[in-house]
Amino acid sequence: MKKIRFPLTLTLIFVLFFAATQVFASPADTFQPKNTPKPKNTPGAVATQKAEEKTNNPKGKRENFKGTVEAISATSLTLTLRDGSSVTIGLSAETRIKAPGTKDATIAVIQIGMEAMVQTIRDQDGNLTARSVMVKPDKPTKIHRVGWVTAYTPGESITIQAHDGNTYTFALAEDVKILPADRADELAIGSRVTIIAPRNPATPQGTANGIVIHPEGSGTGSQPTTP
Predict the structure, then answer these.
(1) Assuming Cys at both sites, which of 34, 69, 99, 119 could form a disulfide with 105, CB separation 3.0 to 4.6 Å?
(2) Once rounded to an integer, what is the mean pLDDT over residues 110-127?
(3) In total, how many domains does the chain have?
């Protein structure tokens, strides 16, 4: 009898265990969330997204140029580059102008002969527009003009007719030196002189800071004749 009860008991335990497993497993299977498929990006959607990004960020290709100002106007700037070529760049109301020692600089500070660094944007048609222009005036260099005085106002200006036949006018510096000092009173119209002046691209004629008076009679026969 005991031998019969043992298999029955074992069978009953197995049935109960299997039933309990099914009860606990069913809820998990019933409420398991299903994976929702992600929407696929079609080629058209990708192209539209790129077009919208381009519209919201309309910046073109950026390029930088460095050279010497060859020409300047209210709407464009032409640079001569180091290789001898030239490039013309458009100017707009948004173009920022920068110059050493100048606050709120404008296009007016840009002079022919100045060194310039220009940041540009090239549009789809290949046109360049300046985002910013930074100019660097050349260091003044001294020039010497030899000629005959044709006009002279002490403390203000002096005009000479040079050997090349051209007329040059110079402003006089406050501390202009007239050499030799003991002949300063001889400076007058008709005197042969050498004008010493620092030259700056922004002021082509410059300001005389030295006048050398040549001895009377020097340069005879070399004075240009006026028609």
Answers:
(1) 99
(2) 90
(3) 2
Between β-strands 167-179 and 207-213, what pairing exists: parallel, antiparallel or unpaired?
parallel
pLDDT tens digits for range 21-40: 554 444 444 445 555 555 55
CA-CA distance, 170 to 178, in Å (whole number)? 14
126 and 71 in a common domain = yes
pTM of the entire structure? 0.41
Give the whole-angstrom CA distance, residue 184 versus residue 12: 137
The CATH number of the domain where 87 resides is what?
Answer: 2.40.50.320
Q: For residue 211, give every residue at least 6 positions away whose Cβ sits within 8 Å of its Cβ, in sequence order, or none.
A: 158, 176, 177, 178, 179, 187, 193, 194, 195, 196
Q: Is residue 225 part of a domain?
A: no
